[in-house]
Write a structure and sequence with these properties.
Elements lengths: L1 H22 L17 E4 L3 E6 L6 E2 L7 E5 H6 L15 E5 L6 E5 L14 E5 L2 E2 L12 E8 L13 E7 L7 E9 L3 E13 L3 E12 L3 E3 L5 E2 L2 E15 L2 E14 L5 E5 L9 H9 L5 E2 L6 E16 L3 E17 L14 H4 L9 E20 L4 E14 L4 E4 L21 E21 L10 E19 L19 H6 L4 E21 L2 E12 L2 E2 L13 E2 L2 E16 L2 E15 L2 E5 L6 E2 L2 E2 L10 E5 L2 E16 L2 E16 L21 E11 L8 E11 L2 E3 L2 E3 L2 E11 L6 E8 L7 E6 L6 E6 L4 E11 L1
Amino acid sequence: MKRAVFVAGASVALLVLVEGAAGQTASVAPATGPGAQTSPVATEGNGLQEVTVTARRVAESKQTTPVSISAFNSDALIDNGIGNAADLQQLVPGIILNGAGNTDNTTYTIRGQGKAVIGPGLPSVITYVNEVPLPSWGSSPPTFDIDNIQILKGPQGTSFGRNTTGGAVLVYTAPPTYNFGGFVQAQAGNYGDNEYQGALNLPIIDQKLAVRLSAAVERRDGYTTNVATGRNLDGKHSNAVRLSVLLQPLDLLEDRFEFDYTRYATNGVGIFPYQYVGPPAQFPGLAAAIAVQQALGKRAVATTNDPTVQNSYWGVSNTTTADFDILTVKNIFGYRNTNVAQALDATGLPLAPLPPFLGPLAGLPGIYSDALAVRRDRQFSDELQFSGTGLDKKLTWLAGAFFLRDEPSGPDYLILDDFRPVSPYFVVPPSLPSPISSLEDNLYTDESHSAYFTGTYGLGHLAGILEPLELNFGYRYTWDREGLCANGRSEISFLTGAPLVAPYQSLDQCRADTTSYSASSTFKAPTYTAGLDYTVSDDLFLYFTNRRGYRAGGINSPAMASSLAGFQTYNPQKVTDYEIGLHEKWRLDGWKGRFNIDAYVDKYSALQVQATGILAGDIVGGVPITPQTQPSNTLLTLNAGTATFAGVELDGSISPFPGLDFNYGAAYINAKYDTLTVPDVIRPFFTTAKLDGAPRWSYQASVRYVLPVHPSAGGDISVYANYYHIDRQYQQFSLLPAHELTDFSVAWSRIAARPINLTFFVNNAFNTFYIQNVAIGQPGLGEFSGNYGPPRMYGVRLRYTFGE
């Protein structure tokens, strides 16, 4: 660490000299035109910041947008040390970010709505990058060279590409501009942390063509030790690159193309059996095995398996905008390619590995684990928009059509091998026999079509008293088609040592196999938004919104036994949302601040829930479950009941005087089932129903103080602290305890009046232990398991900005 500080200090001196020399020759033009994208936050005086958002697909002030929204511009992301999407949870109460298998595959939960980490089903929250929706796998884009991130809460069923019941996360990357410039950034810290970022903006032809190239490299040792192999788990090893091109051949025409590529390659995550839940009789030695593992402590595991992550994501987007003054036409095309290959010791116990021939099968030589997932998908999407004004500019409208298709481009399968009985491959303690050994092919396809119209209409012309009133409305109709080709192929041959049947390599191969199960289902539904906005003054805004949200149904796999045939498919989940809010800016005796609050009630019907632990050998409805009819992942998704989620969210800021700023936020959720009807045949596999990701309270508070600095020193020195609390919450059937996290940093910005920033930081300063992601959250295996979040992390970050 001393070496890192010395290197950072020497780099400061070097960069001051370099910037001074460059400053004598550099000549740049002011940013103009569409390419000069405005940052979403512009400071207004002391403490009041005017935040511009695009929640309704137009740029407008957050304070006059009728939706609960959190927004962070590039400076805010840098100042808060946001290194990945999961870090946002500490700044936005009311959202939860979990990883499915590993932390780079983040799933979002907003207002208690998310996606189960295993099993079929579309997510309740969609992530968009430059308005292109991301697939559910690989939905956590790197946060380097980002222009802004916006988090929309509540159903998003009219304005954005996919229907969602929980919300949307909008990520906008930094666009090319017509100024030469960029930045370089280096970070060093404990656990061998070394991270580098950089961007270069090149104006090729002024006001016609510009290019921006950016990249990020992350390396960090793991903080969990596998004492059985000597390897470190929970490390970082990623490379990412992004190329953006801005083309404006005509004043009325703009085209922005972007290519991005990200690769994660790590030793995987350290899964820990944090709770013994009392297994069935066939697991008599499990409690003792868990006790041995827990005695190692929370930063050590003893698995003979070899977890790994080998994931890569790439894609292109192209946004073309033609502005004809009275009409704007915009087309947003996107392509995403996802390649996931990860091995996970889901039990966190030193049990037997998979047969060695599975490694080369997945393209991962030497990888053995009790859960091996390979997924390769490609997704196409396109959205065509028309927008304009009418009725003497009293009406602002947006109409469009959206298309998406997601399909496998290679093998998509999961191999489970938990608690396998004795076989020629290994020796397992006789106290741990098992019924679970399976290869599950699940090749899903997802196709969505929709058409929509949204608008705002000013009512002032009807009567003078209605001048501050504005009507908001939107309507969308969606057609979804979900497809599946699957084969349980659970292998009794594991007991005899016979070769494992190879997974399907393509969708066509699966469909050509007469033993596979192939099906599709079509779902359709309207969604809408209707509300009133009341602009009381420049500082006070009130709104009421009623929304209808929709989440498509799906298909369970493989072909069900006769007693479960009625659960082969499940229906869409719908929500009716009512939200009322107040946004206020205030000033009092030199103090300034902002206060935003909203209250909502969400009424859900046909709630999608899961029954778990249905294993080969069970008798369900008088019918034995065979290895070929065992539900994938031992679970079924079904519709069972209605629920009400009610809550209050608030955020704000207080600035007593220039240089001192307080920010705060809180979210309260009261979630409960109204009705819950579980068919008798499923009831033994449906334990006490829990609503996931709905902590009663979560809240955050931060303070930043800019210290007085003598003019000769140059720049500003600021100290920052952030505190975050989240109540206990269920993840599947596991009740996670409440926890708090506290971060500190000290930043010296504009050192010697140069564009150089130096930051010292400490994250999780009090070394809190908390479960970050749940691996096993159903009681069927007799334990709950997951990985612990990062320990105390500290380091130094140096950033140099040039040009622009």
